[in-house]
Structures are given as structure tokens and as C-alpha cells.
Amino acid sequence: MIEIVEFVYEETLRESAENVYRKHKEIITRAIPGAEVYHVGSTAVKGSLTKGDVDLQVRVDETGFEHARTFLDKAYALNEGSSQTSFFGAYEKNDEVLPLGLQLTLKHSEVDHFLKVTGYFKENPSLTTKYNSLKSTFHGKEMEAYRNEKALFMEEVLRSPGYLALSRRYDLYEKVKIVTGEKFVTIEELDHASENEVEELVANVLSDPAFKEKETLNIVCSGEEICSFLVEEGFVLHDETVQVTHDLQMEITESSPFTFVSLNDGEEEVFKDVWADAMSGSFNSKSSLTIEDHLKSVECELGEGWRKSCLTVYEGEKAIGVMMPHIEPGTETEGRLFYFGLVPSERGKGKSKEIHRQGLRFLRDDFGAKSYVGNTSLRNIPMIQTFKANGCREISRNKVYTLRRK
């Protein structure tokens, strides 16, 4: 039987495609710790013609590949039309709202390009138009003929200078940690990038279409040569910070006079008001973001389930601060506090040490963290004293350079 191919514009399927992606991303990330799941392919690129199937890329490293394959073998059907190798697996699920395809790839292998190709199409609408023209030619015709022509088209894309430059950029991004908020981008953990790579990285971030609307670019670094380069590029020293850690497998007392209410159970306006009050008069560097911007950044960085991390701290009936425990994105067991602070009237009374201790307990017992990493300004002596009182040890000091583009 001859298979016929037909196309529709992704806009007509956008909501359904996004729902399928979110559903299976949650399933997969819960089952495969450390897996990165991305919506790729035509339904992920606005303006594309699509066959109507949703493609996901599941990226894992060598230590997680066999576990990922074992889970996907049980949860999804093998795509018999694709080869299965030691670094690639293809799966499908045809009883979804839209047909689902899964591509399991080993990071940095020769097939680890689905996210990059999707990004290249997103950045180059003219390429999408050209691809749509090819698809239109084969609408209502044999699938096999379309697939052959598509393969030639994609081979040309993968060889193009533009794609190779994007691939290089994405590889550089993987050497550091990039935190994206509503109005800012922060680059951290530069240890695995050379000085030349950091310079190339900064140039790429400044010109990257994905970051063009971000008002502030922050670079967290320690090397003097990198710091000098940043100053030459127009960055200014914004803050100096200390980073600490704590082994959460140690005993942490549970009794506390304080109660904690998450946004899942409490009122958002109360949380925002207390958070704004807690940031006023802080020893940390002042932020230019509004409380709405901060809240959007929490959602952006932490993703689904972010409301669980937003806790209002109460003493009796009085709200006295906020605390935001979470597992650091991209890790399995590293606990952090996105923010921790008391309102001005409650500072200096010895309460922060107990509340912070309970934050460590939350990270261990409610979030499954095995270690804690904390960070604060060197000017924030009370917070540094709280770290020390709760058994945290210093692991590094860094400088934060900032470039404001608006």
C-alpha cells in the first residue's frame, strides 16, 4: 500500500502539540533523572508546514543512556523504521492526541543535532519558507519520494556555514551554566571554558536572537583576565559573592515555631507583598526588576511545579518572610534557595538561622536534595553568619559583572 503525505500549518495544531510535549516531558524527566527533553521538529517552529506529528528529543549522557533506553523500551513503541544504535533510539506513540515521535540521543554524538536544527530553523524564517515550498511540492504524493527529497535537503542544511556556526554556539553554551529570566541572562560556572571560549561565548550571547529582548546580562566569574575582558566590553562590577555548601544527609532538627505556606495553598498577592518587603533594605545588590519580573523569572527557571517552591514564612498569624527551596535545574539532588529573606522588622532577632535550617530540611525531605548550595553578597554579613551557624562551608568567591542594554 502506497503511503501518501499531507501537510498542515503548525499553527492549527500548536496548542495540542504543546500539550503533548509538556505531558511527555514530565513523564520522561520524572522517570529518567538528568534527561533533557525538547520539543523539536516542524511543530516546534512557527510558520512551518507539518505532517501533524510531534517530535521530542531526549538527551542523556553516557551514564544515563542505558537507563533511558530501558524506560523508553517499556513506555513507548520502537519506531521500526529507524535504526537503533548504542547512541540513538527512536520511539513512537500513535494513540496520543497527535502522533508522537521520540528521539533518544547520547549527548555530543553524531546524531545529537535535533535541537540544533530546530533552533536553526527558528532563527532563519527564510529557511522555513524554503522547506515549506519543498513540502508543498509533495503534498498529496508518495511519502517515500518526500522522505528522499527531505534527506537531501537536511544534508545541505547540516553542511551549511550558518548551521555549523549555530552548532558551535550551542556547544559553547553547554560548557557553562546559563540561567534565563524574564528580563535577564546570567552566565555562571565558567571553569570548563577557556578565556578565548568565554570571549566567544559572550559575543554569541550578545547577538543571540533568543536573548535579544533581555535587558541585563550578568557574568559570574573569578579569573582576572576574564574580568578585564568584561570591563573592556562595557560590563561593570555589580557585586562580589560567596558560595557555600552543606551535606544534607546530616541530621537536621525538625521542631520550629514557624510555619510555611506555599503558593499551592496560599495567596499569591500575600507572597508577592512579603517578598517585596523582604528585598527592601537588603545587604544584597539592589535589583532593577519588579516583583512581577522576579516571579516570572522563578517560573521561567524552575518550570512546572514552581509554585511549590514559593513559601511564605509565618510566625503565628504574621507573615515575616519568604523562602524558595528547589532542586537546581539540570541536577538531580542539588538543593538551593532561589530566595531567602525576612521583612525588615524581623531582622536581627535570631530568626533567620532557624528558618534557614528548616529550609535545609525542606530541601532534604520534600525535594530529595542531598546537598545544598547557597550564595550571597559578601556585604550580607548576617546571611554569611547564618550559613556558618547552620554548618555550611565556603567553597568559592566570585565577581558579578553586569551589562545593561536598555
Could you walk me through the main structural features you see in this protein, from its secondary elements to its overall organization?
With 406 residues, the protein is an alpha+beta fold. The protein folds into three domains: 4-155, Beta Polymerase, domain 2 (2-Layer Sandwich); 172-240, no CATH class; 245-397, Gcn5-related N-acetyltransferase (GNAT) (Aminopeptidase, 3-Layer(aba) Sandwich), CATH 3.40.630.30. It contains twelve helices and 19 strands. The chain has helices at residues 14-31, 62-75, 114-123, 125-138, 143-159, 161-173, 195-207, 224-232, 268-279, 291-302, 351-365, 381-389; strands spanning 4-5, 8-9, 36-40, 49-50, 54-60, 77-78, 88-93, 100-106, 141-142, 177-180, 184-188, 216-221, 236-247, 258-262, 311-315, 318-327, 334-342, 371-377, 393-404. The strands form four sheets. Strands 10-11-12-19-13-18-17-16-15-14 form a ten-stranded mixed beta sheet, sandwiched between helices. Strand 17, helix 11 (351-365) and strand 18 (371-377) form a beta-alpha-beta unit. Helix 3 packs across helix 6 (161-173) and helix 4 packs antiparallel against helix 5 (143-159). The longest helix is centred in the first third of the chain and has 18 residues, at 14-31. It is globular and about 80 Å long.
